[in-house]
Each structure stands twice: as C-alpha cells, then as structure tokens.
C-alpha cells in the first residue's frame, strides 16, 4: 500500500506510518546504528528515512524500472531492479544527519538479460547471488564484478536466494515450488527438492530451512533427508517475507493477509 510502518514490539503498537511514493515499496532495511531506514520502491527509487528526524532525507533515483530488492554491507548499497541490472553504490553514510544531499557513486553494474527479482550477499560481501524472472540464478564475484556461475535452475521466477553461513552453498526458491542447493565453487546444482506450490521466501542456518509458501504455510525442510519435515500453518495469504535473529531463536513473518507474526522456536 506504499507505506513504511514502524511498530514497537514491546507495546505491539504502530508508532509511525510514512509514505514516500504513490507506488508499492518492495524492500526495506535498517542501517547499523538504528538511525536510518532504507526502502526501495516500484517507482525506480530508493529512499533514506531518518528515524531521529522523522523525515525522508535522501532519494536515490537509481534505476529505470522498479527496484525489487536492496542489501547493505560495509557502507555499500546493493540494489536489484526489473531494469535487468544490479547496482553497487558507495557514498551512503551510516549516520545521515542534517539536510545535505549525498553523492551516490555507482561502483559496479551487474548486467542481466531479464528483470532481477532478488539478490543476497555472502557474509564477507565478496559474492552476490541474483535470481531472475526467467529462473536463472547467477553467482557474482564482487571484487571483479564478473560472473562466476550462471545456473538456469527454476522454471519461473526465482523468489529468494541466500548463501550458507560458510559461503560454500547457495539456496534458491522459486515460483515452481522447488528448493535448490548450488555448490558455489563449481556452480553445480547439488540437490533440488519440490513442494506443490511457490515458495516465496526462506531463512536457513546452513542445515535447516524454513520457507514461506504461497498458501501461507511455513515449511521446514530437511536438507540431508531431501524432504519436507514439518508444515506449520502461518498466514491466510502468501508468506511474503521472513526474518530470523542471529541466535536463531526468534522469527518474524509477513504475509499477504497484512499480518506480521512473531514466532518463538521451541527446541
């Protein structure tokens, strides 16, 4: 609905509702220091919102089509777009104070054949994985801005991708309901597991995978056994995004039913 909302977990109350654009917001992240939120939009722009000042402090007109996903690491912004590119930006300060406009510089532009729907970084931000509308997963070396591997492994859009904690594997989910594991060094598809509906998002700790389905279910995948080990009823619409804390103890999911749910893992 084109708004960015901030909630207090303690009081479970809505604290702020901000509108930058008249088009959908696609991705948001909180910068280190908790002072700035970056949000991308289908209007081709990326917005920088200062929590302290309560206003949009900068707008990056970054792409020629909708921005689908943004990532952040070490004062660099990574933006994926339906214009078939992924761009790496510098000049984005962690603490955005005052009203000065910032100079954003493109450090690299990663060209694709079709629109890019998702990206993610490895822990050291030396590698980037991108997933496209046509089902291709591409692993990029960010130090040279070159392609290491290009793997056409989904029929339909790649919904989500992520590196394993040790950067040896990439996991991808797609509209085809498949969950694929790719070897980063060789670019080989190690395994592919199927579910009966699109898997829109996931998290994993290198062993277990929790994915969000089109129907609203959360699926627990057993990678070694190559099967789905548990199904949890979550949302009444598609699970669109999922987050886990570093301790792997708390999970938050968002869905097309407009709900945000907090989960506690029971071990």
From TrEMBL:
Gene3D superfamilies: YVTN repeat-like/Quinoprotein amine dehydrogenase. PROSITE patterns: WD_REPEATS_2, WD_REPEATS_REGION. Pfam families: WD40 (PF00400). One of its GO terms (cellular component) is transferase complex. WD repeats lie at residues 60-90, 109-150, 151-192, 232-267. Keywords: Repeat, WD repeat. InterPro entries: WD40/YVTN_repeat-like_dom_sf, WD40_PAC1, WD40_repeat_dom_sf, WD40_rpt. This is Protein FAN-like protein. It comes from Equus caballus.
